[in-house]
Amino acid sequence: MAWDAEPAAASPRVCCQLQEDEAAAVHRTARLRGLCLGQLGNMRPIQENGELRIESRLDKIIEPLREKIRDLEKSFIQKYSPVKFLSEKDCKRILVTGGMGFVGSYLMDKLMMDGHKVTVVDNFFMGRKRNMEHWIGHENFELINHDMLEQLSIEVDQIYHLASPASPPSYMYNPFKTLKTNTVGTLNMLGLAK
Ligand SMILES: NC(=O)c1ccc[n+]([C@@H]2O[C@H](COP(=O)([O-])OP(=O)(O)OC[C@H]3O[C@@H](n4cnc5c(N)ncnc54)[C@H](O)[C@@H]3O)[C@@H](O)[C@H]2O)c1
């Protein structure tokens, strides 16, 4: 039955057919709606189950990561060598230049364990980080990345000046820099000690 047919011109049989078609259409729509509503009603528990499943999956992924973070945090808690307690009168502020090097790092260890406040100045040219990393974060320890050719303003009680490219490969790498470090660097430290 065409939708644009004129109802007034339709015969009683046609009208009846039209009513049947309308009823069928309404019935179909209602069935479809009912189906959809039914489906939505059934979907809720499925969705809730899905969310629960996703949450439990996420927990499974996140838990090992949490454990890793806990392990990392534990490994970052530094255990320092025992340090003597000195009264304010006896505790000195000590500057060690070249403190990341061979001689400087042993001296720095000794001064730290004796309870002094130690400032290490080094330009990281030859020094090794592992020579002093066991003191990083200690309240008595400070590391300054500085080249001895530049002036340094710092308040200290004692100075140990060991910054020098001492080994043959280092001083031959740049002989002029070596000469300058040993002369200008030493003059700068003498100026600070004045
Ligand atoms: N190693 C020995 O057996 C020995 C013996 C006698 C004297 N010394 C003297 O002791 C001093 C240190 O010797 P070392 O064996 O510890 O040397 P090293 O090379 O191990 O340490 C020297 C440190 O000085 C730093 N440095 C170099 N130039 C610098 C600059 N311009 N500014 C800041 N830091 C700088 C380096 O990065 C390094 O950490 C040197 O003057 C050396 O002649 C060493």
UniProtKB/TrEMBL annotation:
Question: Keywords on this record?
Answer: Decarboxylase, Glycoprotein, Golgi apparatus, Lyase, Membrane, NAD, Signal-anchor, Transmembrane, Transmembrane helix
Q: Name the Pfam families for this protein.
A: GDP_Man_Dehyd, UXS1_N
The cofactor(s) it depends on are: NAD(+)
One annotated Gene Ontology cellular component of this protein = Golgi cisterna membrane
Catalyses which reaction?
A: UDP-alpha-D-glucuronate + H(+) = UDP-alpha-D-xylose + CO2
The pathway where this protein functions is: Nucleotide-sugar biosynthesis; UDP-alpha-D-xylose biosynthesis; UDP-alpha-D-xylose from UDP-alpha-D-glucuronate: step 1/1
Look up and give the membrane topology term.
Single-pass type II membrane protein
Q: Which GO terms describe its molecular function?
A: NAD+ binding; UDP-glucuronate decarboxylase activity
The protein's Enzyme Commission number: 4.1.1.35
Chain ranges of the UDP-glucuronate decarboxylase N-terminal domain: 38-80
Q: Chief localization class?
A: Golgi
- Locate the transmembrane regions by residue number: none
Q: InterPro entries from the xrefs? A: NAD(P)-bd_dom, NAD(P)-bd_dom_sf, UXS-like, UXS1_N
A GO BP term, please?
D-xylose metabolic process
Q: What family does the database annotate?
A: Belongs to the NAD(P)-dependent epimerase/dehydratase family. UDP-glucuronic acid decarboxylase subfamily.
Its name, as the record gives it, is UDP-glucuronic acid decarboxylase 1
Q: Which organism is it from?
A: Bos mutus
> What broad taxonomic lineage does this protein's source fall under?
Eukaryota, Metazoa, Chordata, Craniata, Vertebrata
